[in-house]
Amino acid sequence: MILMEDIVREGHPALRKKSVEVTFPLSTEDRTLCDDLLNYLKNSADPEISEKYSLRAGVGIAAPQINVTKRVFALHLPELKGETLSFIAINPKIVSHSVEKTYLESGEGCLSVDRNIEGYVPRYKRITITAFDVEGNEFKLRLKGLAAIAFQHELDHLNGIMFYDHIDKADPYKEIPGAVPFMRD
Fold first, then answer.
1. β-strand partners of 85
2. Of the listed 79, 83, 105, 154, which one is catalytic?
3. Is 154 a catalytic residue?
4. Alpha-carbon separation of residue 134 from 66, 90, 130, 172 (angstroms)
């Protein structure tokens, strides 16, 4: 079980490395990694478990955040229509994206960042992605809203990019041309 002390914090070298592709079939170690990442998110969303183990809630976590530089991350978030989107993405890619941008008006957070960083993080409003599941089957999804933002945030981790790298340092709340802030309906 991943605990907060297992999550590396900003400044750790793993967060700035480009992760390596995972090969199939998955090793036992890689299967465990996938299970652990997704279970952390599920546990952090459960009030009893998160309180018992002092887990910070998250909707995404990438392997580099636990000092494993492999191209794997997990997403677990409630969708706007009441359904939960929950999956492991192995060797994920964005294959197409909208011209329109979006951002979280409240800013983004990260399990590896223990401070509040203000500013807008521009993201594509809609994306089409491909990735592999733990069995090695490729899947394709169209994501929008919070799911698209979270996917891009986690994909950045696999490329050694932190969310605050996208914030305009001189003007953190600078208007993003053509972007509409993401709001839950």
1. 77
2. 154
3. yes
4. 19, 7, 14, 38
- Peptide linkage before 92 cis (omega within 30 of 0): no
Per-residue pLDDT of the chain (185 residues), as tens digits, is 999 999 999 999 999 999 999 999 999 999 999 999 999 999 999 999 999 999 999 999 999 999 999 999 999 997 656 788 999 999 999 999 999 999 999 999 999 999 999 999 999 999 999 999 999 999 999 999 999 999 999 999 999 999 999 999 999 999 998 898 987 54
Residue matched to tokens 């994920």: 92
Cβ–Cβ under 8 Å, residues 45 and 149: no
Strand order in the sheet with 123-124: 123-124, 101-104, 180-182
pTM greater than 0.90: yes
Which domains are delineated in the chain?
A: 4-182 (3.90.45.10)
